[in-house]
Amino acid sequence: MSESIGKRFLNIVTNPVAAMAEVKENPRWVIAALAVALMLGLFSAATLQITGPEQLDVMRETRFGKMMPEEDLAEMYAKYESPSVASRAIQGVQSGVGASVMLFVMALIYLLFCKLAGGRGTLLQTAGVVYWSSVVSLGLSSLIKWPLVLAKGSSSGVAIGPAVFVVDRGPTDALYQLLSIFDLFTIWGVLLMVIGLGQVHEFARNKATTVVVTTWLFLSLVLFGIGRLFL
After folding, report:
1. How many CB atoms within 10 Å of residue 209?
2. pLDDT digits over 157-183, tens only?
């Protein structure tokens, strides 16, 4: 008999092997996608007055930002520093939906790499693994960071991983951005994908580790490189 949804949310943290076995049988990826969107959306809406100005600070350092008139930037800062309920809601929806779409694209890329390695899983099974892993790497991470960001008054200053040692360099620093890839919740999510994609595609643990870690590093470094192009 299939497990309950509540039990799967618990197992993805406490018993990931059992959780991923259920994902293989019944992906329920839509539920995981909605959960990630909800948690990330709430975090984005609640911290908009902090993350908004910080994002503008980063944008000002880019080629595009340097071309923007100071009056436009000042207006954007004012809106972010005192956001309305509607602005928070819009930001939350955009963040949640954007993350869900991004994760589906990632699922397609992981499926491609797994198929190239001889995997037998389906798109829905692969999407299930990616979304349920993201319940931890994005969803739970957001809930943990939420009070930390509010207390510190900064999102870039809250690092849970090796980036904490270079946080003073600022969010546009190459070393800070590179080390941020290895956030502990991100690593946790990668380990969950090793377990899940290994089961879904019937890989041995060593092969699953190689395929997942290689794909994750490839995606992370591509995104890192693209981000640096705009600075």
Report:
1. 18
2. 788 989 989 988 888 888 998 999 999
Diameter of the chain by CA atoms?
Answer: 61
The model's pTM: 0.90
Interatomic CA distance for residues 112 and 106, integer angstroms? 10
Cα angle: 40, vertex 176, 144; to 5 degrees: 30
Terminal-residue alpha carbon distance, the chain: 53
Interatomic CA distance for residues 143 and 40, integer angstroms: 8
Distance CA 193, CA 111 (A): 12
Tokens read off for 24: 């293989």
Taking CA atoms, 13 is separated from 7, 9, 66, in Å, by: 10, 7, 44
- Neighbouring residues of 201: CB distance < 8 A, sequence distance ≥ 6: 114, 117, 118, 119, 120, 121, 126, 208, 211
**Measuring CA to CA, which residue among 13, 41, 32, 46 is closest to residue 146?**
46
Q: Which amino acid is at 186?
A: T
**Ramachandran angles phi, psi of 208, nearest 5°:** -60, -40
